[in-house]
Write a structure and sequence with these properties.
This protein is of the alpha/beta class. 44% of the residues lie in helices and 16% in strands. It is built from ten helices and ten strands. Strand 2, helix 1 (29-44) and strand 3 (50-55) form a beta-alpha-beta unit. The longest helix has 16 residues, at 29-44.
Length: 257
């Protein structure tokens, strides 16, 4: 049986690869369940500090599989839905980086943008696609897109469903970095290893919770919570090690989560 999500780990970086290359990694319930299971396992694994998500072959994820869409259309869809929401990666305490290597459409685009960071191939083809399929902005994309790209750009991408490149995705603020496709994994993994080596796992976990959670808070609430979190950080061994490694001019040896 084909493993729908491949995994490999090196130097604290776990790479998860959607593995339906013949379908441009179109999303199925089974693939999604496997992906979320592996994210949950990675959160518990002290050897994993950063997670990179990409796709096998020419696509990152081309959206929902058309067999699923057809079943929804004719009423024959009967799969038991996963209880975990599409935004599940935002709740994982470790950084999740999307490496968008190719087609990134519809639901695939949602899965890229609920990662904490996005690296993309310049030539990767992105599209929301929903309006062109008679659908709506799914799974929180109407909340995420305006915050990343602004309301005007979000309206354009959602209403038109036009295709745009990874280079434009970077210009719009949807990706942190856009690079030639042949360099994508090298640059993404190099960045991920930098986080795994030099950034405190505990600090990254708290910062991730702050950034995703504070979008719903006022500035005053965010500042008050940050004061409490900062006091908590003073008592962790990460703080001691972070200062010591800086003073001693060496790489830190932060403990795992």
């Amino acid at each position: 049986m084909v493993d729908l999500v491949l995994s490999s780990i090196e130097r604290g970086v776990l790479t998860l690869t959607f593995n339906r290359p013949d379908r441009l990694n179109a999303w199925t319930d089974d693939m999604g369940r496997r992906y979320f299971d592996q994210l949950a396992e990675a959160e518990k694994d002290p050897g994993v500090r950063v997670i990179v998500v990409t796709g096998a072959g020419r696509g990152f994820c081309a959206g929902a599989d058309f067999q699923t869409l057809a079943a929804l259309q004719d009423g024959s869809y009967s799969a038991e839905p996963d209880s975990r929401p599409t935004t599940f990666p935002t709740t994982i305490r470790k950084p999740v980086i999307a490496a968008v290597n190719g087609a990134c459409a519809g639901l695939g685009m949602v899965h890229a943008l609920v990662c904490d960071l996005v690296f993309t191939a310049d030539e990767a083809k992105w599209t929301t696609a929903f309006a062109r399929r008679g659908l709506i902005a799914e799974y929180g994309l109407s909340w995420i897109l305006p915050r990343l790209a602004g309301q005007a750009a979000a309206m354009d991408l959602l209403l038109s469903g036009r295709t745009f490149t990874g280079a434009e995705a970077r210009e719009l603020g949807l990706a942190n970095r856009s690079v030639p496709g042949e360099s994508l994994m090298e640059e993404t993994l190099a960045y991920a290893r930098e986080l795994a080596t030099h950034s405190s796992p505990a600090s990254m976990a708290v910062i991730k919770r702050q950034v995703w959670g504070d979008w719903q808070q006022s500035l005053e609430s965010s500042e008050s919570a940050a004061v409490r979190l900062m006091v908590d950080s003073f008592s962790r061994p990460d703080f001691v090690e972070g200062v010591a490694s800086f003073v001693e001019r060496r790489a830190p040896g932060f403990p795992p989560l």
